UniProtKB/TrEMBL annotation:
It comes from Anaerococcus hydrogenalis DSM 7454. It catalyses: 2,5-diamino-6-hydroxy-4-(5-phosphoribosylamino)-pyrimidine + H2O + H(+) = 5-amino-6-(5-phospho-D-ribosylamino)uracil + NH4(+); 5-amino-6-(5-phospho-D-ribitylamino)uracil + NADP(+) = 5-amino-6-(5-phospho-D-ribosylamino)uracil + NADPH + H(+). One of its GO terms (molecular function) is diaminohydroxyphosphoribosylaminopyrimidine deaminase activity. Converts 2,5-diamino-6-(ribosylamino)-4(3h)-pyrimidinone 5'-phosphate into 5-amino-6-(ribosylamino)-2,4(1h,3h)-pyrimidinedione 5'-phosphate. Residues 1-121 form the CMP/dCMP-type deaminase domain. Zn(2+) binds at H50, C75, C84. This is Riboflavin biosynthesis protein RibD.
């Protein structure tokens, strides 16, 4: 076993908290002494103890002279928890090996540890660590949630037929992966038309899955009259369903996010900022072609998960994933780069990243 083995162990521990840390990072910690793992820990959820402290809390023996592996630079400031650097120093740790430096300007853990004579090594499996915490690093750099679109389309680029039928374009294995995505994102957004036509639940139906906060974009609060007919308002879930709207209501059963209006619709940038203030660090948009394009046009699409099924449906009035003004010249198209391609039986999924951001 070597340094990379222990750091990958940190990554695996950190992943246990997917969907639970909100704007906090995913962090795992492994303590090694005399070539043996003597304790492990991770940041379980937002507001709870950090990975390093959890690791020390699980310790059953003396840690003097041990090496601590942690995928993110230990914090050195007071927030909801105290500085992890103090606990590391107190435990007489000899060396700390880190994957990623924390880009939060409040954190200066490397300097604090080195001033106390603790050896610090950084950059171990750095790219893998960045991918694990891309939402966190994005939040710190751009001060807003990372926003991804998810849709399923046919080989001829259609997300629904002439009659608005879309169940099911993708297969069951693709849909299972979508539930994992929902588990990983803090909030999920759809438009009122998707709610009316599909009546989705928008929860995470995997074992020990974490439901996202659910948001319906409905500028004029048109669904208020029949809201009880929709599954999303009758879920047994620990997360709320909100309506993003420009209208008011006296109905105490509805949770509204009152937004500014832009071009006679909910101002999506205002909505995103309000969700960020609610501690939402990542958003998955599962809307139709109009909402998808609105997010794209506002510069609010950072990632795309495009599921492609080997079907062709044709049709003059069948819908494509993006419906809007569009661009006049190919050179002016919105540019993305492919990060990953997965296969789910006959379906494939393309994960693409907007070229205009980096961490």
């Amino acid at each position: 076993m070597n340094d990379k083995y222990y750091m990958k162990k940190c990554f695996d521990l950190a992943k246990k908290a997917r969907g639970k840390t909100l704007k906090n990072p995913l962090v795992g910690a492994v303590l090694v002494k005399d070539g043996k793992i003597i304790s492990t820990g991770y940041h379980h959820e937002y507001g709870k103890v950090h990975a390093e402290v959890d690791c020390f809390n699980n310790l059953k023996e003396n840690a003097d002279g041990a090496v601590l592996y942690v995928n993110l630079e230990p914090c050195s400031h007071y927030g909801k928890q105290g500085p992890c650097t103090l606990e590391i120093i107190k435990r007489n740790i000899k060396k700390v090996i880190i994957s990623n430096i924390d880009t939060n300007p409040k954190v200066d853990g490397l300097k604090v540890l080195r001033e106390k004579g603790i050896e610090v090594q950084t950059g171990l499996l750095e790219d893998e660590g960045k991918k694990l915490n891309e939402k966190f690093f994005f939040n710190i750099k751009y001060n807003r949630p990372l926003i991804a679109l998810k849709y399923a389309q046919t080989l001829d680029g259609k997300i629904s037929s002439n009659t608005n039928d879309s169940k099911w374009i993708s297969n069951e294995f693709s849909r299972e992966y979508v539930h994992r995505l929902r588990n990983d994102y803090d909030a999920i957004i759809v438009g009122k038309n998707t709610l009316i036509h599909d009546n989705p639940s928008l929860n995470s139906r995997i074992e020990e899955g974490v439901d996202p906060v659910r948001v319906i974009v409905d500028t004029n609060l048109e669904i208020e009259k029949n809201y009880k007919d929709y599954k999303i308002f009758n879920l047994n879930s620990d997360k709320k369903t909100y309506i993003a709207t420009c209208k008011d209501t006296d109905n105490p059963d509805l949770n509204l996010i009152k937004c500014k209006m832009k071009n006679n619709h909910v101002d999506l940038e205002d909505l995103v900022n309000k969700l960020y203030e609610m501690n939402i660090g990542s958003i998955l948009v599962e809307g139709g072609s109009i909402l998808n394009y609105d997010f794209l046009e506002e510069g609010l699409v950072d990632k795309i998960y495009e599921f492609i099924s080997p079907k062709i449906i044709g049709g003059f009035n069948s819908k494509s994933p993006f419906y809007g003004r569009g661009v006049d010249k190919i050179k002016d198209g919105y540019k993305f780069e492919i990060e990953d391609i997965k296969r789910f039986d006959d379906d494939i999924m393309i994960e693409a990243k907007n070229v205009h951001w980096n961490i």
